[in-house]
Amino acid sequence: MLTEAPKGTKDIYGAYMDEWQRVEKIMREICDDFGIGEIRTPIFEHTELFLRGVGETTDIVQKEMYTFKDKGDRSVTLRPEGTAGAARSYIEHGIYNNPQPTRYFYIGPMFRYENTQKGRQRQFHQFGVEMYGSYSPSLDAEVISVAYELLKRLGINDVMLRINSLGCPQCRKKYNDALKAYIGGNIDKMCDDCRSRFEKNPLRVLDCKEERCQNIIAGAPVVLDYLDDECREHFETVKAMLDEMGIPYEVDDKIVRGLDYYTRTVFEFVSNGIGAQGTVCGGGRYDNLVAECGGQPTGCAGFAVGIERLLLVLEAQNGAFEKKQEKDIYIGAIGQAGLVKGQGITYRMRSAGIKAECDSVGRSVKAQMKYANKIGAAYSVILGDNEIEQDSVKLKNMATGEEEPVKVSELFDIMMAKKA
Ligand code: ATP
Ligand code: MG
Known about the structure:
single chain, 15 helices, about 40% helix, binds adenosine-5'-triphosphate
């Protein structure tokens, strides 16, 4: 127990962390290019926020939340997603008073008590984008273009965009009635989860991943047939904009997404290469969310990408991540004087942006040279009493094996010149 992380959590380190940082850097660059500012909201919120924001009938609220009483007897919940907290913040700070739209992104951990499997953890991380203050299809298209750009810049090629429209609450009501009638006639053949979903919110049934339920779902009425003129027009415009941007997509009338807040556009980016948990990104429009969380009705759209799933896709595509070691110079030592001098030069170099490393574990000279190779040092020196006394040392090019005599006192300037 003591030396094992809790089930469904993962330590992030080494080569995996390097790849993570590369991905996160690209996310931040894209947000900078698209004019999307970072927001950091608390890891826990009042439980009520998620009951209202995520929705009482969702799997998240029904069975996945980490909810507990704090020492002040308040019910708080570790955030299972980022959208509700961001909306709460948007309302709390009166951000709707600024010229709209507002564009936010977040990167951080989310918590869901789930059955763990590949691509499904209890603590996982999302990169999410939220845009507020517009009912225009432009907002939907823009949000989708951010997610698409991310996959493009990461060089991911087996991920497909699927989109659908759930219409507005009026269309949804008509559709719900039709769905209820259909599912009601088949419910005895469906799983227990679907039976309880059917009671609370028939739409949820479409989200079921069980095969026997999938077979029934395949014959269900299609939401796109129930869109009113305005919702249809909205969806058509989103698609026309995607065409104009050159973003390929497939219309998938079975996508409903796992959260209650969606209206009109919903979309997913799905990979075929990482098994059952293939959805790397999910999003859409949620015009009722801000009002549901206590604000004024506000058009908004967004998405969230699962970072771990994204890394699974990258690994499946590009092979195992490798720890890259890159150092400019290794400054080895024989004896106390070299050790002390080396520490000083190393610090000066690091301060100036040269990636230097010196002996910090007392290795033998032979072991130091081996280590210099291992960490990918471009150059190395070994400082002994003689070298320091005569102000002369051999600077070795690790790639070619060539050695050039240099002054110890000029080592810093020489390395600066090489780096420039
Ligand atoms: P799923 O259908 O896979 O359960 P979801 O609809 O619950 O996904 P969202 O709430 O829309 O997912 O979250 C967006 C993204 O976050 C998902 O597409 C996925 O990449 C990632 N994600 C969701 N839950 C997990 C989890 N338990 N572990 C790892 N990643 C997750
Ligand atoms: Mg889920």
